[in-house]
Structures are given as structure tokens and as C-alpha cells.
Design brief:
Pfam families: DUF6920 (PF21900). InterPro entries: DUF6920. Keywords: Membrane, Transmembrane, Transmembrane helix. The protein is an alpha+beta fold. The protein has one domain: outer membrane lipoprotein receptor (LolB), chain A (Clam). The protein is 25% helix and 42% strand. It has a 13-stranded antiparallel beta sheet with strand order 6-5-4-3-2-1-13-12-11-10-9-8-7, sandwiched between helices. It is elongated, with a radius of gyration of 27 Å.
Length: 295
């Protein structure tokens, strides 16, 4: 009995199919490469546009600050270390600061148990009506932290296009307002007493600051060093949207900027039962006042 065999496909036909298959794979790989390259660029462009819009809304929402220059008479009745602080950092006759813009570089931890990573920051602030917009960027993620129109928000994106975290609500409203108030040491006319801000004595080296805004009452215990500079600020803040813990800001490396003495190094951390855990260390490289445009 003879076995009947199927005719074999011509060699050129097999070669054509192989080339077609290789072409499809190459096209898929090329498409993956294009997406991998363009997606982060598109994400970066989109986030940059959002950041610019946030800054625009921040400045549109500002209120005019009193043009009355700073006078030592404004310090009458304040706790002694507070009076010494203002006389040390603010020259008499200094107009109130209306807005701030600053650039920062430093290190950050995404969790108190994780390693430090390098980060660069860009921030814009208004004073009379509390507000700020901050953008931080690392090699892996970008973040936007803000307090706008009485609302706080934190947004974190991986490689500029994948949303890792978005936080907002009453806890963030309070937390971001706390950040704005704590960073007022970088624009100290904002810490002068007024309708919403009151100082109370504690001892010869510390005082309590209380601030009221939109039904929220905030307080800091503030420690002054022997140079009459604010060295440490402590308050209670929600940690990772959970319970409140002691939040600490450490300030140092005071330098003159536009005639005002301000800290150029800021460290933030949590004082927990297990000890002190810093998570942010920033060096302010540029700080400028009363300029209503972006860098």
C-alpha cells in the first residue's frame, strides 16, 4: 500500500509567512516603545498644565494685604520670645508680604520606614487669604500639594501619568492649612497678630500660636533658640489620613532674603511613641516675594 503525502508548502511561501510574522512582532514592539516614550511625556505635559492652572487660580483668589508697614508697636503685649523673634527677623517699616514663590531641593520618604529619595520642589503662596500650590518631582513620581479656596488636596502620580494617590476632604483641609501656617516662618509678616492669629505665652523660650480660619482652629507650640529664631514647631496633624500624631517642623540655616531673615532649611517629621521619624528635608534655593508670576 502506498502512503499518500500532502504536498509540502513551497520554501518561498514559508519564508513569506515568517517575514510577515516578524513584521507583526516588530510593529508591536515599536508600538510598545512609542507608548513607553510618549506616555510619560504626555503625562508630564498634562500635569504641568494642571499645575499652571492651579497657580493661576491661586492668584485669582488672593486678597489684598494691608499696606501698613511693620512697626514694633504691633508687638506690644506679645510674649517676650515672640517680640524678640520679630525684632530679629523683620526690619521696622517692612511692608506685609502678599505672595511668595520658592524653589527647593532635598530628600523625601514615601513612608517613614523607607529610604530617602531626591526631590525638587516648586511652590507658590498667598498670605491674606490662605493658599499655596506645591509641586514636587522625583525620578519616579510627581506630587501636587495644595490649599485652594479653603480646600486641601494631595495628588501623587507615578511617572507623570499613573495616579497613585489622591487625598482630599476635611482632614486634608486641616492638614494643608497647617502646612501653610507652619511655613509662614518663611514669610514672617504672616505671623504678626491679627483678627485670626493670636500668640500666648508658655515660657521664656516658647510660645503658643493659634490661628482661626473657616471654622478650623489650629495651634502650634513654637520653640525659639538663643538667636531668637524659630527653631522648632509642634502640632497635631492627621498622619496618612488616619489618627492625629505629633507633627514636627525643624528650621535652621537662617539667611537674609529681601531684607528678611528666614530659614533656608526645613525638616518635617513625626514624633511617635517609638521615636522621631523625619520624612522630608528641604533646602530652599530661591525665595522671592510679591511676584505674581511663575518661575
Amino acid at each position: 500500500m502506498k502512503t499518500i503525502h500532502e504536498p509540502l508548502a513551497p520554501k518561498n511561501e514559508l519564508l513569506a509567512k515568517s517575514q510577515q510574522h516578524s513584521s507583526i512582532i516588530a510593529s508591536i514592539l515599536l508600538l510598545i516603545i512609542i507608548i513607553a516614550v510618549t506616555a510619560p511625556l504626555a503625562g508630564e505635559f498634562f500635569l504641568s498644565a494642571q499645575f499652571k492652572d492651579d497657580v493661576r487660580r491661586l492668584y485669582l483668589n488672593r486678597e489684598k494685604v494691608s499696606e501698613k508697614p511693620f512697626s514694633y508697636q504691633q508687638l506690644d503685649g506679645l510674649p517676650v520670645p515672640v517680640q524678640k523673634y520679630f525684632k530679629h527677623v523683620l526690619p521696622e517699616g517692612r511692608p506685609a508680604i502678599q505672595s511668595v514663590r520658592m524653589l527647593q531641593k532635598g530628600q523625601f520618604k514615601t513612608d517613614i520606614k523607607k529610604d530617602w529619595i531626591d526631590i525638587e520642589g516648586e511652590q507658590y503662596v498667598t498670605t491674606q487669604k490662605p493658599g499655596f500650590v506645591w509641586k514636587g518631582k522625583t525620578y519616579m513620581f510627581s506630587a501636587r500639594d495644595m490649599y485652594l479656596k479653603g480646600k486641601g488636596k494631595l495628588v501623587v502620580d507615578l511617572f507623570s501619568f499613573y495616579r497613585l494617590q489622591k487625598g482630599e476632604g476635611p482632614k486634608y483641609d486641616e492638614g494643608e492649612l497647617l502646612r501653610w501656617l507652619g511655613e509662614s516662618v518663611c514669610y514672617p509678616t504672616n505671623l504678626l497678630p491679627g483678627d485670626n492669629l493670636v500668640w500666648f505665652p508658655i515660657d521664656d523660650e516658647s510660645a503658643q500660636l493659634i490661628y482661626y480660619y473657616k471654622g478650623i482652629s489650629l495651634s502650634y507650640n513654637i520653640l525659639f533658640n538663643s538667636k531668637n529664631e524659630i527653631e522648632r514647631m509642634e502640632t497635631q496633624r492627621y498622619m496618612a489620613d488616619k489618627n492625629k500624631e505629633k507633627w514636627v517642623n525643624k528650621l535652621s540655616s537662617y539667611q537674609l532674603r529681601d531684607g528678611i531673615l528666614v530659614p533656608t532649611y526645613i525638616e518635617a517629621g513625626w514624633q511617635l511613641k517609638d521615636g522621631y521619624f523625619p520624612y522630608a528635608k528641604f533646602q530652599i534655593t530661591i525665595i522671592e516675594y510679591n511676584k505674581f508670576e511663575m518661575f
